[in-house]
Amino acid sequence: MAFDRDLQPxxxxxxxxxxxxxxxxxxxxxxxxxxYGLRNASDKFDVKAAHHALINSLPNGSLLLGIQAxxxxxxxxxxxxxxxxxxxxxxxxxxxxxxYERVRAIQPQTRIFLxxxxxxxxxxxxxxxxRMWRGGTPADMSGVTRAELEGFEEKASExxxxxxxxxxxxxVPAALFQWLWEHYLSRGAAGDPVxxxxxxxxxDATAAVFRSAALDEGAQADSGRRLRPSxxxxxxxxxxxxxxxxxxxxxxxxxxxxxxxxxxxxxSEFLNVIEGIGDVTVDWGIRVSTRPADQVLKNNETNLRRxxxxxxxxxxxxxxxxxxxxSKAQMLGEYNNHFEVNGAESEVSFTTVIAVGSAxxxxxxxxxxxxxxxxxxxxxxxxxxxxxxxxxxxxxxxxSPPRRAFDDFAHIVPSDMWAGFVPFTSSQIGDDSGPVIxxxxxxxxxxxxxxxxxxxxxxxxxxxxxxxxxxxxxKSYLLKLIAALVNDMGGQFLAIDRSQVGxxxxxxxxxxDAVVIDLANPTVSLxxxxxxxxxVAGERTLDSILPLLDLSPTSGAxxxxxxxxxxxxxxxxxxxxxxxxxxxxxxxxxxxxxGDEYADLASRLGTVAERVPVLFNPNLATLRLDAAATVxxxxxxxLPSAEELTTPHLYNRLPLTKRLGTALYExxxxxxxxxxxxxxxxxxxxxxxxxxxxxxxxxxxxVTSDFxxxxxxxxxxxxxxxxxxxxxxxxxxxxxxxxxxVFRQRDETLARNSLEWLGVDLEEAPYxxxxxxxxxxxxxxxxxxxxxxxxxxxxxxxxLNRIGRGKILGPARPERAAAIISTPGTxxxxxxxxx
Length: 835
Prior knowledge:
By secondary structure, this protein is an alpha+beta fold. 41% of the residues lie in helices and 20% in strands.
């Protein structure tokens, strides 16, 4: 057995500086992983370039770590309420409290990335032999001066400067070293501590904070056969205070990599294979050392001479040895040419350890065999070497002195090839804080997906989003979920409901201070002359009625309307409503000496005045947009198809009913723009479930563009949904809306359009097309129903252009979850079932 005094090298910690028994001083940093996931090849090559700069700048003996740990539920909830005044958002506070049990049940994980690098020594004049003789004698920390500490910090800063800011390194607190040690002792067992996701204040610590433990290689204590030792490659870690919950761990290391190389991207990211294994915890560590190109070239010359001597000695021998030597000489020549051509290259010697731990030996060995099978598919052979388990276990401990096993299982590659491993990457999607709308399915850890829609606007970022998917895939569910969260956090929203069953009306019934308006049977007026400020009412009215009346602003009747609706014309004729406008036009038509354009204008207005009471009924109250929720029901209003809107000859032949519908649709958007895109201190969300009615017309495209461009300045956003992003999400909807969601699309053409709109290169990842069509919330069984546990699956692109796969969860409160289900009857049944 080995004890912690042999394996824990720390004497003292000063902030992120670690002082070890051998005199080595290391600096350790949190590393912010780079977004990877489903991004295209050009982005992935940028990630590789960042890793290339990293490896060429690190000092020898640096340690890279990827540590899997459980997320603290309270940390998740803290991120949910970040930036929200709960005193003013009581409903959201209730939602967050209700989320507690759900997050606990999911048991989300995360991977913490760390970089530990040597930055000096407290005994620079001491030889390595003297250090070895000192063994475990503690270094005298009282002799370390402030100037020396500043020197170590300056050395670390110099290294980080060479690396660059891609990884945003942050110094770890001293408490991180204690947490890391306890995690190693409890890896995968019941006592494994949750991850410290927040960086605390830098502090100090001593070796006394580290627990003691026994490492039993082969788990000999579990066997009653004392004469025949166990040869199972497993370590049983037992802590004296927690003997009843040991951790069984196995250390794996690559024995060989593919002989033909590993293509990047797609074939070299071998650390991604370890994700998504249940019931165990899997950590990884890579210890690296580098040599410059000039030294590599000198060594290659020496090795070439040795090969030449061996070939001369075997020149007359009849065997395969001559062919083997020739092959080695050829490879050495290619290797040498690589460094001659790339002068800035370096040679990397690296040792990789994959640590697997759980509460039972059986679970650990099952995971080990699973990993071996996975890696075999990539022609990588993993081994769990007997007798070296404890040495490899110690390699993951920052500051650990070199051991023989580190060199025995090392591999040597050029630095650009090593950079293709891209170890510091993440499949994380979503924001750093905000409401939890789902979980990440791609990382394998089920991390919560935060969507800080209101927080983004406060930080001068666009909070707008767009959704695509087939009928019943979850588009409307997501729209209503985000609308509910905006309402809970004190914002307001306006949604246009096209459904015959009134799904948004049903949803609004669960919200206090909600207004529902039926455009066919109105109770309020959308008359733009009454709705908008007099300074802009005329222009807004022209934007609405000229397309409705099929008039050009420069034609005779169009010019007449434009003249009447100028501020001067409105004041002169006392026009306060569309009814007033109609009466003025009738009077001018009958006035002798006035042109025929007023007769034309009067006849056109007459065709719509009786048909659209929502515009021409003076007895209706004006729509107010200060309600918490406003739902505009347009199910009885005829609307043109996307093809009719985009094809000129079809648009010119649109019937009057569809022109009316389009005008009303645009008018609602303009009203929301006037209400939300002003500094009223309240977040406003405009929701359009039929996106082409906003994006394909001139006025609607302007509304979409204004929300996309300026919403962040005025605490506002737009949410759009459509079946086909190729035709409906054009212009601002394509270029300026950062947050994008793609739900199930079984039609191949629409699926292709959706993934390309998301930013996926299907030539690089054609398999994603099949996943979207067949394995995203797939309907199964005789009734072709989606199982409850598979509902809400989607692809997502976040504000940082990271692309991943997740699952929408919905509200944590049962009554709110029932309210946002699309079909009112289904919602009532779901709520009854929950009760």
